[in-house]
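Sequence design from tokenized structure. All designs in this work follow the same two-part layout: the structure record, then the generated sequence. An example of the structure record is given first.
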């Protein structure tokens, strides 16, 4: 049976209802689609169920671009006519000269500042437009000048990027509308666009200028995505992940993304790639804390040539990681939030996040508790076994690499067996004397974490796992090393005759308090390591850790 498990042992009121739910599918009939799109642009719907329910209508934009790419020129002209920018009274140019802000000075769409009681202040339309210009200039400064994203193209014949202030209503913060295809030089087409934002953000989770600021950061990042990197229409979750994270990156003191976290903490069993993406801002925050801006920026550069999940995996490979490995860390960090928060090793704002839902709590009877379930790729379950005052929480995640990157919604079954006594050497032992073992089908890959309440769950033992290593079912070997190791170490792999096959300076990753380095099993000549027994060394600051591992082909 070829099974792979990664085991780590560690110690142990929102103001509004989240707006995100699965949006109803756009009509497939062309005429009905055009009617549906007109209603979306006008904000009028036959039924409330048809109204957009996400933050920025990007899934509707995906429907538009999907229709655009598969339609003929006449139908495209009809779509373009519906998406034509609005005509408003006046406009101002931002201090940088890059943005032109359009607004009405009176009427339904006229903007206004809010007073301390959240009421609109008459005669403040111009001040609001000035604030919008400043917000978009700051988003440009942070996302283009500081981080290094490619600036979005102007509409053909234009010399500025256009932003329109409208009465969005209904909780919709803003929309980035595509206008025309700009380039086909990448795997997916890029587009010119314009942005609409709300005229006051009255009654929003982040009211007034705070709502305007985070919307500028969010929507401008969508403009960057559409204009410089290409649009993969089945991966809107990743576009929202990136844009919602960018709100916190640009405005770290405005926490509008808190609104969407409950869906992640209430339903961690939903696969990563089937989520709305707003709740996955936390994954962007995790990547930023662990890798800085470089990993996400490199992911977007890769998206020009490959789908987002593969692009992310390739970006992480360059930094000694893998997507599935980061997902294991993500699952663990999500447990240490709320009253369990550990801000030294996970999210700095974790105490303000919801507390993760425990799917199943089982009392140990007759020295044993067993859990039987199934998980889809990149989904997580949190389980607890208890007896008296002792409780152990298990964080179990399906990290089947092929299924995860290809977004295959195929579940894998597993069994988790927990015993307080009478177990054999195939069980992992906890410091409270309990033992546990997770088993699954051939070729399945899980990572799981045991967390003890009230006591240290285990120690960071040196070693390599999985051992033996089966390249066909495991994407990487992980070497657990001393907690005194510096941020980077030198890994070397040798034959029994001490012939060096691989040497590389790798980044140390802190996974649940344990220092680790990961290797994908490819040698210096680019070939996968063949079956056999090998020695390894991890060297740093005049010290060397060493060990051996086996590679098998069955």
């Amino acid at each position: 049976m070829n099974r792979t498990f990664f085991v780590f042992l560690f110690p142990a009121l929102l103001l509004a209802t989240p707006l995100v739910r699965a949006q109803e599918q756009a009509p497939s009939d062309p005429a009905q689609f055009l009617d549906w799109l007109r209603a979306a642009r006008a904000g009028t719907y036959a039924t409330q169920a048809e109204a957009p329910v996400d933050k920025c209508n990007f899934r509707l934009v995906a429907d538009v671009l999907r229709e655009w790419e598969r339609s003929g020129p006449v139908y495209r002209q009809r779509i373009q006519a519906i998406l034509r920018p609005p005509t408003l009274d006046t406009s101002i140019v931002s201090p940088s000269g890059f943005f032109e802000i359009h607004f009405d000075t009176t009427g339904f769409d006229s903007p206004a500042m809010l007073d301390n009681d959240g009421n609109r202040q008459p005669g403040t339309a111009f001040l609001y437009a000035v604030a919008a210009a400043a917000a978009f200039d700051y988003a440009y400064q942070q996302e283009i000048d500081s981080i290094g994203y490619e600036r979005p193209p102007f509409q053909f014949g234009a010399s500025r990027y256009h932003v329109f202030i409208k009465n969005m209503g209904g909780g919709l913060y803003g929309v980035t509308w595509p206008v025309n295809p700009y380039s086909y030089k990448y795997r997916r087409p890029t587009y010119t666009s314009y942005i609409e934002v709300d005229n006051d953000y009255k009654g929003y989770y982040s009211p007034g200028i705070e709502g305007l600021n985070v919307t500028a950061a969010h929507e401008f990042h969508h403009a960057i995505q559409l204009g410089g990197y290409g649009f993969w229409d089945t991966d809107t979750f990743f576009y929202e992940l990136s844009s919602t994270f960018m709100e916190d990156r640009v405005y770290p003191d405005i926490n509008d993304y808190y609104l969407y976290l409950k869906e992640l903490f209430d339903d961690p069993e939903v696969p990563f790639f089937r989520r709305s993406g707003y709740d996955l801002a936390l994954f962007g925050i995790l990547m930023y804390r662990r890798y800085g801006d470089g990993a996400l920026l490199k992911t977007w550069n890769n998206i020009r040539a490959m789908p987002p999940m593969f692009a992310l995996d390739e970006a992480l490979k360059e930094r000694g990681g893998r997507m599935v490995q980061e997902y294991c860390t993500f699952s663990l960090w999500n447990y240490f939030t709320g009253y369990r928060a550990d801000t030294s090793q996970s999210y700095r704002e974790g105490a303000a996040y919801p507390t993760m839902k425990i799917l199943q709590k089982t009392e140990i009877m007759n020295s044993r508790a067993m859990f039987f379930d199934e998980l889809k790729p990149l989904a997580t379950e949190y389980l607890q076994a208890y007896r008296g005052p002792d409780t152990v929480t298990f964080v179990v995640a399906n990290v089947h690499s092929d299924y995860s990157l290809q977004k295959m919604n195929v579940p894998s079954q597993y069994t988790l067996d927990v015993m307080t006594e009478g177990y054999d050497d195939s069980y992992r032992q906890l410091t409270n004397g309990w033992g546990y073992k997770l088993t699954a089908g051939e070729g399945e890959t899980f990572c799981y974490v045991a967390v003890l309440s009230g006591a240290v769950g285990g120690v960071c033992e040196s070693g390599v796992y999985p051992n033996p290593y089966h390249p066909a079912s495991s994407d990487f070997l992980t070497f657990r090393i001393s907690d005194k190791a510096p941020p980077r170490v030198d890994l070397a792999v040798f034959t029994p005759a001490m012939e060096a096959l691989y040497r590389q300076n790798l980044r140390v990753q802190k996974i649940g308090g344990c220092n680790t380095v990961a290797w994908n099993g490819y040698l210096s000549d680019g070939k996968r390591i063949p079956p056999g027994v090998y020695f390894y060394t991890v060297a740093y600051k005049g010290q060397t850790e060493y060990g051996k591992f086996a590679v098998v082909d069955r």
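Residues 1-24, 45-52, 454-459 have pLDDT under 50 and may be disordered. We note this feature because it recurs in several other targets discussed in the main text.
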